[in-house]
Fold:
Amino acid sequence: MADRTGQPVGSGGAPPAGRRDTRARMVVAAAELFRERGYDGTGCRDVVARAHAARGAIYHHFPGGKTQIGVDAARWAGDRVAQRIEAACADAAPVDAVRAVLDLAEQILIGGGGPAGCPVAAVALSAEDTDGTLRAVANNAFDRWRTAIAGCLTSDGVAAARAARFAAMTVAAVEGAVVLCRAAGGIEPYRDVRDGILDHLDHLLGTVTPNAAP
Amino acid sequence: MADRTGQPVGSGGAPPAGRRDTRARMVVAAAELFRERGYDGTGCRDVVARAHAARGAIYHHFPGGKTQIGVDAARWAGDRVAQRIEAACADAAPVDAVRAVLDLAEQILIGGGGPAGCPVAAVALSAEDTDGTLRAVANNAFDRWRTAIAGCLTSDGVAAARAARFAAMTVAAVEGAVVLCRAAGGIEPYRDVRDGILDHLDHLLGTVTPNAAP
DNA sequence: CAAGCTCTAGGACAACTGTCCTAGAACCTG
DNA sequence: CAGGTTCTAGGACAGTTGTCCTAGAGCTTG
Structure:
C-alpha cells in the first residue's frame, strides 16, 4: 500500500502521475498484483493502471518486458521479507524469533484484508518462465528466508542439519498455508499450521511454552 | 499419463480420437496441465489438444466452460489423492502411514519427471475465480487430506487438537514444498521438508526412528 | 530562449483467449 | 435401411495480451 519511500502510492483520488518514481511504483504495484492474482493472472496493463503510469513506461523502465517486471517485483518483495526475518532472528532467542517470523507471515502473506498470497510464490509458479529466470529469483528469496531461520536455531545450540530441516519445513508450511487459506477463504488454516510449527519448536528446544494446548 | 480405465490416453502417435470417453480424457488432461502450468497458464485449447479432442467438445461436455473443467479436474485429482491417503492411513501405524503419505506426495506432486506441481493448488490460486467455486473444490480436497491424517494419529492416542495441528502443518508443508521445488528446479527442498515433518512426528509419538539423523 | 534528454501518453499489431455456432460424422434404436 | 440422438470438427467473434512504435510533454543544462 505504501512504497519504499513511505509516501502513499496514489496520493488521493486521481494523482497527476508525472513524477520520477514511476519505476518504483510499478515494482510495488506488480508485487501487490502478483500476490493477489498470480503472475499469469496479471497483465502489464493491470500493473501500469495500479501504478498510475502510462503503458509506454513498461518498456522504458523494463526493457526486458513482463519477465523483468516479475524479476524486479519478486526480488523487491523477497528482499523486504528477508530483511525483516533476519532482523527478527538477529536479536532474539529462537522461540521469540520464530514466533516473530510467524507473526510476520500472518501479517504479510495471510492477513492484510484481501485474500492470502505471496508474490514470490506467484513468480515461482509462472507458466511462461521457460528459461528459469523467474524461478531463480524466487529460489534466492526462499533460500535467504530458510538460512536466516536455521541460523537462528544453530546459534542457540540446535544441530545444523536439524535446524535446516526445521527452517525448510517452516518456510514450506507458511507458503502452503497461503494456498490453504486461499482455498478456505479465511485465516483459520494458518492458525493450525502456525501452532503445529510451534509444537515442533517446543520439542526442538526442549521447552514448554504456556499457550500451546495439548 | 493413463486415464482411470487404465488404457493409454493416446494409443500411439496420432490416435483416431473418436471414442466416447472424451470427457474423462479431458479431465485427466486438464489436471495434468494445471499441475504443470497452473490454471491461468492453461488454455482450453491446450486441454483439448492434450486430450486429442475437438474444440467443440469443450462446451458439449462442460457447459460451464473453463470453470467447470477446473472444478472437475480438481475434484478428480483431489479425490484420487484422498483415497490413497485414506488407504495409507487405514491399515498402518501412524509412523508408517505418515511415511506412506510423504512418499505418495513425493511421487505425485514433486517427482514424476517434470517440474513439481499440484492441480488442486493450481485451481485454488486461479485469478478469475470471483465467486469462489474453484476455491471451494480445492478446500474440500485439502480438508479430506487433513482429516485422514489427523484421524490416523488420534486413533493411536494423540490428542485431537494436536493431531489436527500436525495434519494441517503436514499438508501445508507438502504444498509449500511444491513451490520450493518449482523454484529450486529440483527435489532437494522436499527432502528437507519431509525429514522435518518426520522429526516432528517422532517427537509427537515419543519414538525414535533409526534413519533420522540428529 | 534553445538544445537535448528523460519520460509520459496512447495508438497499432499480431497472437491468443474463452465462447458460441453450424455441419456433419458416428452411433443407437426401431 | 430410416430417424433421431450423441458427439466431433473447426470456423467465427469479440475481448485481451505482450510488444513495439511515434509524438510530445517536462525538466535540465548551456
About this structure: Confidence is low (pLDDT under 50) at residues 1-18, 208-214 of chain B.
